[in-house]
Amino acid sequence: MSGVAEHDGGSSVPDEEWERFLRESADGVADAPKEPSARARMVARRLREEPESPQVWRGHSPARPRRRKQGWYVVGFLASLVLLVVALSPGLVVGWFGDDAQPDTPLAAESGRPDQAPPTPAAEQPTLDQPFRGSPAARWADNAAGITVPEAKATGWMSKAEVAQALGRTRDFVVAANLDPAVLRGDHPTKAIARINPHQKDVQDYLSTAFRTPTKENDPLLLFSRFDKTRTRLVGDVVKTRGRMTYQQGERGALQVSTDITYVYPVVRAAAGSDDVERTIVRREVVVSWDNPAKVITEPGTFSLVSYKDDVTNGGCGTTTGYLTPTFGAEHTAGTGDGPGIDPYDRSTPLEQRMGKGCGRATRT
Q1: pLDDT of 179-204, one tens digit each?
Q2: Which of 1-15, 211-225, 272-286, 320-334 is the least confident region?
């Protein structure tokens, strides 16, 4: 037998050391070596048989490289594409979602002829509190705010400042003719008529007879919006408008201003307690000429009428009374008439392309 005592773990202590350990243990030596436990011997044997790789103290393990998420690039590209479409054609995007996408958001001012009719909102009946509910006009501007006036530039015989003044006075005319509360109640449109050249004989003849004995040819409604206050009453003090003014050089160097504006009037019967709200819609195209007084006899601050056209929905058809005469309740049936179907909110085509013989059939009010 060798001089080394073997133990299960394969560890050993020399005989001399072991005898010294026994003697010193009996004497109580504090630092005497202790025999390794069975668990310690087992661990020591495993370490010898399967040594671990040395570990670096506070070593840095490089992070695992991340895979690029290609999906985010696709999403970003699509988002950029949508933003580009919105910038180039906001009307198209509105059409994707309909008017209900943002029912309370006012539309931007009309800067040019739209390329399509406005979407149809959810079918809702108008009320005294919400007279424009269920109508595209709910998002239009109130009263004169819906009339877009272009930037002034020197044109014809007028300087930039004079053009700006003429544009402002033209706007004053259409406001006085179609939005003045007194005129809407049937009063004489004195302020509006004061803007018309008193030396334009054919127009003055029309004006002198239209209010006295209105006829189809001499109807005040060709230029002015008026209701018979004994029969019809407007709801609230807001008329929804949408339209624009443009200008160019006309004959003999005149400043020719064109207006194309749609007015939406909410109305009820004049009788007290009436709550059956309907809407009368009038679109007018009026062209005026601010003439050079050196070439045309005129008065300061007045213009000559070049042309005027109108299209009326639910304002009366076939009778001439000098007043807009809407129908209500059982009397009013949208879509009736002997002419082509017309969307009164569609401003994508000139008025002359919509005008025809007979009473048109309004597709909505």
Answers
A1: 999 999 999 999 999 999 999 999 99
A2: 1-15
Cα 141 from Cα 358, distance rounded (Å): 31
- The type of residue at 196 is I
Tell me the C-alpha distance between 195 and 257, whole Å.
Answer: 14
Q: What token pair was written down for 27?
A: 């004497």
CA–CA dist 3, 18 (Å, integer): 11
How far is 60 from 63, CA to CA, in rounded Å?
Answer: 9
Euclidean distance between CA atoms 3 and 106, whole angstroms: 105
Question: What pLDDT does residue 71 have?
Answer: 54
Rama region for 299: left / alpha / beta (φ>0; ψ in -120 to 50; rest) = beta
CA distance 238 to 106: 15
d(CA 304, CA 309): 15
Q: Mean pLDDT over all residues of the chain?
A: 80
Cβ neighbourhood burial of 243 (10 Å; 0-12, 13-18, 19+): buried
**pLDDT at position 261 over 90:** yes
Beta bridge mates, 265: 280
The one-letter amino acid at 101: A
CA distance 312 to 344: 8
User: pTM value?
Assistant: 0.71
222 close to 284: Cβ distance less than 8 angstroms: no
Q: List b or e across 57-81, with b for residues whose CB sees 16 or more CB atoms inside 10 angstroms.
A: eeeeeeeeeeeeeeeeeeeeeeeee
